[in-house]
Amino acid sequence: MSFLAGAFLAGLAALGIPLLLHRMSMKEAAERDVSSLMLMRETDEPIRTRRALAHKILLAIRLAALAAITLAFAEPVLEMTGLGDPEARDRVRLVVVDGSLSMRRAGAWEQAVEIANGLVEGADESHVAVGAERLTLVQDIRSATPGFTRFDFEGLPTRLDALIATLPGRRDWEIHLVSDFQASAVPSRFNALVEGTRWPTVLHRVGEATDNWAIKSAAVQGDQLEAVVAGHGETTGIAVALRLDGIETARSRVAPLADSEAIARFDVSKPGPDGASKGRGGLFEVAVDTGDAIAEDDVFRLVRPAHDALTVAVVPGGDGDASARTFLDAALKANGVAEPVHVESAEDWPRSVDAAIIVDPGEIPAPLLRRLERYLNDGGGALLVAGPRLRRAASLPFGDEMVIGNIVGGIRGVVAVDSEHPLAQTSFQGVEVQRSLSLPAAPGETILALVPADSSGVRSESDAPLLVEKHYGKGRLVVLLTALDREWSSLVLRPAFVGFVRDAIDYLSQNLPLAARAGQGVSIPAGSVQIFDSDGRRVLSLNNTVTRPVVRIPRPGFYTVRTPGREATMAVNVDPLESDLRSVPNEFLQRWQAAIDAATSAGPQIRAISQSDEADKHLHPLAPWLLGFAAILLLLESTAANVGRIDQAWLGYWRKGATA
Question: N or C: which end of the chain has fewer CB within 10 A?
Fold first, then answer.
């Protein structure tokens, strides 16, 4: 029990006044012998015991009434856990605890465990799930720990329904979401937080704002390695170290501003500690030493492949493709992993080809066309780029696939349809497409699609395909339905183009992936995969899987990927969005909570709880009960006082009668 207005308790001191007056009235007067009274006849002193007892009882009743009134003004409340709406008590409680990397900050996970335990103890039936890249049920939240992956709130109601569908019985549910509510985890469209919500939900915030620094990304460009240091806190000088194969080779210092980025540059042209040079490759680690909120994002790992450059056969469509070839050559050179060979005829075809790029094909000479068909049927991979000549041909050069020649106009953005496909890993944000062709695609063939620019990236059934994958024999043909021309799209002017070309070459040549993010799906171009950590322990084995298995590695580090006859080292890093520990404001949580209440008709009992609130506690005021008790005491006091007066009047009348 606690008091909301404890200062009123000082009024209890006033109860000492009637007690003092009562004590003073009980003192006996001093006796003196007076000579004039010695001749008077002595009489018996009347008995006053009964009258004194009545006065004490009345005094006790009056003091109790005054004390009850004083306590009522102090507003005492009784805190009780787990009491609430009886209908809510009949629901099954599902507690979802954010288990992403950001919850590793000091105190956040401990607060979440405390709240989750209170919610479980206050429910008749409950389940607990940890949320990261997927929702996972746990028996006891105290035995769980936050992971290294990301927890995104977009589409959360749908994921909750999928989890509930796996639980036995059909019951009403009450969901409690315990999280630090990172701003980076909230979708840009507010309605995506509420769409599909079926069950009452309570939001519980944990964690405190704190500074954090991270290596956001790193890349090798020629003889120089550039690392992006993201700062989420006050400006400070940060030491950045470069390690090659586990040994520090260089050190730099940067000073990123709050919520900004700084670039640390290192020369990697010199041989490493074991003689590793640019040609042999190596395992790079870029690290900051700050002792900040999260240690796992202080290191970024990078693999520079040791193999020679791949051979890419570029088949131009005609003399008008000079600009497209220039863009392609620049992207291949920037990546540094492929050597382009321009093929005009079948005689120019290289002895060994890792991947092929066909630029806006029109009339391909028959010998070269047969060479391309044989290359695809034998298991090769090719990227076909659309353009004006393909529009006039109205069909792909392989098979009977028809291309709709009408150009779809209007400015549109790019969205991923198959988000786990290797060619959808590059961010196409900011890419605008003005012209594109259309190709009928079977289910599962569309990788990227076009949406209206004003749709904020929201897909619909009428989206036009942009990147489509077709299978020919054992090979794969990926079709880009816009030209490498600034009049068709801004793709060639955006950084996404270099990343897209690199991913396309890796995918078409069936190279094993060199990089991944913890918890996110990675496509492996093989039917059997084994993955080992840096200590040689096998962490994953996929045998007899589909043609393109997808693997997820939950922890950052260097891993060895083995397929039949091939092996590569893959660097796994944490998602840089988890490094930004800024949370959404309380006003946003209140708006989110109100939207959930409106969608589920939950009423005001479903509310957002701030980090200073205690879990699931209800306050019951006691002031009305105290005032009622005081009223009863005053009524009893009045009755007792009147009874005393009647008793005294009857005693006086009896004495008069006896004397007479």
Answer: C
